[in-house]
């Protein structure tokens, strides 16, 4: 999507105002959009500082006349949150956008429960408060225009990310999940495994080992709920875990085969 595309200011409601929702809202407010939010936890004081109107009551939030409602809650809580939404209080057709790290799961769930007149855009900003703290330029933003009839609202929402310099990647939810199982889930799995091994920096670190330490520390900043959600709700993740286990077994067997060859006296005598 071109950064020169026409856009308009939007009224955007955020469900799930944790660190990621807060992070996205800062840029949206900076761009001039009007932001409302609701969450299980009371973030009303923080919201005021960010220039966001906070609602403790979901009914009042749905009556706030938003153009866009963005789902920023956890993967594991999505089903419960969606089923508690008072869709009957919507005043006009609304664009629903999810920003979860898996895509087929929210797509299928939202298509089942959203009013037919509501549009659906499934997205994955592939960055967060740490990687995006110095700006979003050249960071990946995946999106799938699942059900879009109001092109103006959809384009204006996408322009939030395009105008910040994101690499806008349009693909299907299934394509995303297949690739993310190999990239994001595999990265998190290896980072978690390194944490279980309690690896730490040493006085003789190589740069490569320090990369592993950084990987461990980076993945452990994310919650286990996120990690388990990447596994439970991405149908491709289980196969990638099996592939990783098989690869480790192959490497182990190659090492044992070489060890046996080196230590076999009959082999040594024939040298």
Can you characterise this structure?
- Helix 7 packs across helix 8 and helix 7 packs across helix 10 (237-263).
- 48% of the residues lie in helices and 15% in strands.
- It is an alpha/beta fold and 271 residues long.
- CATH architecture of the largest domain, by name, is 3-Layer(aba) Sandwich
The chain-level mean pLDDT equals 94
- Overall radius of gyration: 23 Å
Shape: elongated
Low-confidence stretches: 1-5
| Structural class by SSE content | alpha/beta
Question: What proportion of the residues is helical, as a percent range?
Answer: 40-55%
Structurally, how many domains make up the residues? 2
Which structural traits does this protein have?
271 residues; eight-stranded mixed sheet; 15% strand; NAD(P)-bd_dom_sf; 48% helix; Rossmann fold; elongated; alpha/beta; 6-phosphogluconate dehydrogenase C-terminal fold; Arogenate dehydrogenase
Summary, kept brief:
One of its GO terms (molecular function) is prephenate dehydrogenase (NADP+) activity. The chain is built from eleven helices and eight strands.
């Amino acid at each position: 999507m071109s950064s020169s595309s026409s856009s308009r200011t939007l009224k955007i409601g955020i469900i799930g105002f944790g660190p990621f929702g807060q992070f996205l809202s800062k840029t949206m407010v900076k761009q001039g959009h009007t932001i409302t939010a609701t969450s299980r936890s009371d973030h009303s004081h923080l919201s005021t500082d960010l220039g966001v109107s906070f609602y403790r009551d979901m009914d009042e939030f749905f009556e706030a006349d938003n153009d866009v409602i963005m789902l920023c809650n956890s993967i594991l809580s999505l089903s419960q949150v969606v089923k508690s939404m008072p869709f009957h209080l919507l005043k006009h057709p609304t664009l629903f956008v999810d920003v979860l790290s898996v895509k087929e799961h929210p797509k299928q769930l939202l298509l089942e429960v959203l009013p037919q007149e509501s549009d659906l855009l499934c997205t994955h900003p592939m960055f967060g408060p740490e990687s995006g703290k110095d700006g979003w330029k050249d960071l990946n933003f995946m999106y799938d225009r699942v059900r879009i009839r109001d092109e103006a609202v959809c384009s204006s929402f996408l322009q939030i990310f395009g105008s910040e310099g994101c690499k806008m990647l349009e693909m299907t939810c299934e394509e995303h999940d297949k690739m993310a199982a190999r990239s994001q889930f595999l990265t998190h799995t290896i980072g978690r495994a390194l944490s279980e091994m309690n690896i730490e920096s040493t006085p003789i670190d190589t740069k490569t080992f320090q990369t592993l330490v950084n990987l461990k520390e980076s993945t452990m900043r994310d919650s286990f709920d996120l990690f388990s959600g990447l596994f439970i709700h991405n149908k491709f993740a289980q196969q990638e875990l099996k592939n990783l286990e098989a690869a480790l077994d192959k490497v182990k067997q190659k090492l044992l085969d070489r060890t046996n060859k080196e230590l076999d006296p009959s082999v040594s005598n024939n040298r």
